[in-house]
Amino acid sequence: MTARLTGRKIIPAVFLLTLSLCGCDKPSYPAGKVEDSLIKLCEDEYGLTDVKVKITGSTLGVYIPIEGLVDSNLKLDKDAGEKIEDVALSIHRVTTSTDMPLKFYTLTARDTRAIGAEFILTGFIYDVIRVRLLDISRGEYFRRILRDFRFNPAIMGEQKIKEFFDALKKDPALAERVKFLFYPIYAIGKKDTQDIRINEMDAKEVSEREALLYVRTIESYEVAPGFEAYLAIFPPGFNNEYLVLIDLS
User: Fold this and answer.
1) Quick one: which of 88, 95, 87 has its CA closest to 29?
2) Per-residue pLDDT for 10 more than 50?
3) With CB atoms 3.0 to 4.6 Å apart as the test, which of 52, 186, 195, 230 could cross-link to 179 if both were Cys?
4) CA dist., res. 28 & res. 34, Å (int)
5) How far apart are CA 59 and CA 121, in angstroms?
6) pTM of the predicted structure, to 2 decimals
């Protein structure tokens, strides 16, 4: 379920403010300190305290959670757009003043209210330098930035799994319908004594619509008469594992 934001420039012209490029031998943000420097810059300059940064190869990845990323019309919220602009400008300042050979950046803003909603910017760092040197136009620069608004199936899948396991405790009718999925506690336990808690969960996006989730649980029960021998293999509080494929539809 992917939708593109079109018909508007998400990052306004201030995003392209020309900053003096470092001409001295010592970079402002040396390699090895890029991640911490970017986090500190976002906090000191814009009061953004939840920014996370990770470098993989030659790509700088930046993440910021935003409450209310999208409005009721599924368009980027104005205040959210300003926060994204602030982080993007910080990325420009750091990546053009470092001796670390970075090539690309990816900025992911994720909504903490609309589960799974993400706005992603992906750019080529050399293009930032080129537009500042007037080697390419602003229009050409904007066309080179990839913008994507979508719902992340891995994030939504994690939320749905949590809701499902929580519902098992509260809805006996649901538990009765799906108990065949949860061997052995519903087969060997007394009715209504089963308790399944999520201990660990990892999600991997396998397509734009699908995510594969690994769920490790702690499962407790009271053994039913005649099944006492199973306690040696499945003592109350044993661990179980599940693989779940989630589709956004």
Assistant:
1) 95
2) no
3) 186
4) 10
5) 13
6) 0.68
